[in-house]
Design brief:
Strand content: 5-15%
Strand order of the largest sheet: 3-2-1-4-5
Shape: globular
Structural class: alpha/beta
Largest sheet: 5 strands, mixed
Distance between the termini: 42 Å
Radius of gyration: 24 Å
Helix content: 55-70%
C-alpha cells in the first residue's frame, strides 16, 4: 500500500507542511493557518497531491506542541487519514544522527516528513471522551500544585529574610488562599466526574488493588494506561511501557574498563516517573507483594535506590496487566513474578 507522508510543524497560528510521495524527495507544500475554518484548504491541497502521485493513504506526522496540534489531529482522523505524534526527543535525536542542523519552520516540516517516511511510527488515537475529560482535570491539578508550591516557596524566602509584611505579604496570602481553593474545587470536580462514570470507578477500583496504587495516584495511572493502550492497540508489552514512561534501564559500559552505574532512559513524562517513584516509597512500607519484591532485590545485593526504581517499574507492570486483562490483582501470581 502506497503512503503519502505529510510532515507538519505546528505553531499557534500556522502549519508548515512538507510532503513526500513514494520514490520522491520531501518537498515543502507551504504554510496554512492553524484554524479549523481553514483546515479544508489544507485537506484539498493534500488530496490533490495524493491524487497526482496516485497514493491511497495519507499519513500525517505531527510533532506534539503543547496541544496546538490536537484540533488538526482530530480533523485528520475524521478524513480517514492516519496520524502519528512522535516523541519530539526521538525526532531531535534522529535528526542529529542524519546530520540535519537547520532550524526553521520549513526545515522542521521537511524533517518530520522524512522522519515519518523512514520510521515505523505508531498510529495515534484520541483518548475516550470520559478519560480525556479526566486527563484535563488532572493536568489542571498539576498546574495548580506547581503554582501553589512556587507561591509557598516565595513566602518562605521572604519569611527567612524577615521581610514578610506589607502589600507583598498580603498579595502572597491572597494568591495562596485562591490556589488552595482552586485546588479543592478541581479535586471535587474530579471526584464528581469519576462518580458519574461507573466504568472509570471499576477500573480505578481494580488499579487500587495493586500495592503502591492509592486513591490519589490511581487516576494518573489510569490515563497513562489508556494512552499506552491506544498507542499499541492494547497489545503493548510491559517492556515497551516501561520505556514509554522512561523507567527502562540504561546501562553504560564500553570495553573492559568503562563501567558507570546504570540509570533509566528518562524519556517519558517526568511527572509520571516521580509519581511512580513515590508510589514505590509508600508501597514497600506495607505487608504486601511489593515489599517482598523490594526486599528480595536488596537482600540479593541491589543498592536501595536501584531496588526502588525496579519496584516503581513493577507497580507499572502490574497495573498494566490489571488494566489490559480487566482482572483483579492476584498477590499470589505477583509474588511468583
Amino acid at each position: 500500500m502506497s503512503v503519502f507522508t505529510v510532515g507538519i510543524d505546528v505553531s499557534l497560528q500556522t502549519l508548515a507542511v512538507g510532503i513526500k510521495a513514494p520514490g520522491s524527495a520531501p518537498t515543502f507544500l507551504g504554510s496554512f493557518p492553524n484554524d479549523p475554518a481553514h483546515f479544508e484548504q489544507l485537506a484539498s491541497a493534500l488530496r490533490e497531491q495524493a491524487q497526482q502521485h496516485q497514493v491511497t493513504v495519507i499519513h500525517l506526522v505531527l510533532e506534539p506542541t503543547g496541544g496546538y496540534e490536537q484540533l488538526l489531529a482530530h480533523f485528520a482522523l475524521r478524513q480517514g487519514w492516519r496520524v502519528s505524534l512522535p516523541n519530539p526527543k526521538h525526532v531531535r535525536d534522529w535528526a542529529k544522527g542524519v546530520g540535519i542542523r537547520a532550524k526553521t519552520d520549513r526545515q522542521d516540516a521537511l524533517k518530520l516528513t522524512r522522519y515519518g517516511a523512514e520510521q515505523e511510527l505508531p498510529s495515534w488515537a484520541p483518548l475516550p471522551e470520559n478519560v480525556a475529560a479526566l486527563n484535563t482535570l488532572l493536568e489542571r491539578r498539576n498546574d495548580l500544585v506547581g503554582m501553589l508550591r512556587q507561591e509557598e516557596n516565595r513566602r518562605h524566602a521572604l519569611q527567612a529574610r524577615e521581610e514578610y509584611h506589607g502589600p507583598a505579604a498580603q498579595s502572597l496570602e491572597k494568591s495562596i488562599a485562591w490556589l488552595q481553593q482552586a485546588l479543592a474545587e478541581i479535586d471535587a470536580a474530579t471526584r464528581e466526574h469519576i462518580d458519574q462514570h461507573p466504568e472509570l470507578q471499576e477500573q480505578l477500583r481494580r488499579l487500587r488493588q495493586v500495592p503502591g496504587v492509592g486513591e490519589r495516584n490511581a487516576p494518573f495511572l489510569l490515563v497513562l494506561l489508556f494512552r499506552w493502550g491506544a498507542l499499541t492497540d492494547y497489545q503493548g508489552s510491559s517492556k515497551g511501557l516501561t520505556a514509554y514512561v522512561g523507567l527502562d534501564p540504561q546501562p553504560f559500559e564500553s570495553g573492559s574498563s568503562v563501567r558507570k552505574p546504570s540509570t533509566t532512559s528518562r524519556q517519558g513524562d517526568p511527572t509520571l516517573r516521580s509519581l511512580l517513584f513515590m508510589s514505590a516509597l509508600g508501597g514497600i512500607r506495607g505487608d504486601n507483594a511489593l515489599r517482598a519484591f523490594y526486599q528480595r532485590l536488596v537482600e540479593g545485593g541491589k543498592r536501595k535506590k536501584v531496588a526502588l526504581v525496579a519496584t516503581a517499574r513493577k507497580i507499572l507492570i502490574w497495573s498494566w496487566a490489571v488494566f489490559r486483562d480487566q482482572t483483579s490483582f492476584d498477590p499470589k501470581l505477583a509474588g511468583a513474578a
